[in-house]
Structure prediction request, 451 residues.
Amino acid sequence: MTANPPAEIIPNRLYWISDKTPPRNQANSYYFCIDNELVYQPFCSDFGPLNISMTYKFCIELEKLIKNQTYSSYKIYHYTTLNPQKRSNAAYLMGAFQILVLNRSAQESWNPFIPLPAFLDFRDAGYGGCTYRCTILHCLKGLEKAIQLGWFDYKKFNVHEYEFYEKVENGDWNWIIPNKMLAFASPSPASSDNDGFKVWTPEDYAPLFKSLGLSAVVRLNNKTYEAERFIQKGIKHYDLYFLDGSVPSDSIIKEFLRIAETESGGLAVHCKAGLGRTGTLIGIYAIKHFDFPAADFIGWIRLCRPGSVLGPQQQFLVEIESEVRKWGQEYRALKNDLKIISPDKREENKTAGMRKIDNKLEMSPAEHFVSIHGDYGQAERLVSAKKSNQSSPNSPALPIKTPASGRAQSHTPNSPVKNKPQSSNIFVKSAVRNITPGSMRSYNRKSPSFK
Prediction:
């Protein structure tokens, strides 16, 4: 027997275990380990959570394994080592499997892990210290909330589109709120950077954005391209600059929300890396309009776009959550009452639900300094880290095609992407028999969810 007790996921069928060695000597058991197959690409000291694509792959393969009658008499173990970072990512994956395949709530999915030794919380992608901790449960609750809102559909998720467009040379963009908020890195003035790495220009983005139903671009960083390059292609452009690594002012927040609430289509939002400032403002919109808890939203956006929301921006979202949710309540109440409010009162009421934020940030002195004065060079470091991680400048470009629906989503099957990533088996062979689970050749679900 192993030294550490396993977490029972499905009685007498599925278990999760972390130990020095896998449960090799248990009869009629099958173990698999994905520690070296599904690997997080860090920006600095961050180590997770594993993104939505890896989450999906894990769930698809485990679902196939459980339903395979050949192994119906086996106890299946998801094994991970005692490495704290690997352990947290493995626990998150098993929690996500319970939500997506077993139809359990986030809390129910986390309950089997509560008796086990404490897990290492996730941290941000910044280069300094991090006092804020993103827990596994935050990530699970973020996934659960996104499913409830219709932002993620396990049965329709297009893994090929996600993996294509998240690469720097293919646009480096992700849906955060499908059809409404897309996060992307700053467009380049030229088609390649100083290192010869392929990057996208406004002319590359514009036709894609139009096909996705996006009507405007919001730039949060310094000017690196001419806004007119988007405007000439029929995409509106707004500038809402604030310092790299800092938190937005009250006026920036109000203007961003005004733009989002009045534009005819969705918004494509970017700063330099499309992570910190971008994720923060999108988070405020999600809190106001969807009652998305701030801590859970941070978990969700990092599943969609790893590295999002950094440093003091994390505490900032949590601290302003209650006030922003009040804005949402007032906004919806006013929207319902507009038909009976006199025209003279409508202008007055436009600022209602937008009271000044009076928050006390619980940060370290260094984080508080950054929240005001920014973190010079942070975005450049993040961009460089992502390019280094992906290190595939010769990846073939994909011609942009307008999907038949005209509303492509990275979380649904409406995708112009035809090429597929290389197949790979994410499960190791069984310690009992030479068993090879289903390969990664296809991610299309053909069977109903395991109940």
Notes: DSSP finds 14 helices and nine strands in the chain. The chain has a mean pLDDT of 83. The longest strand covers residues 75-80. The radius of gyration is 23 Å.
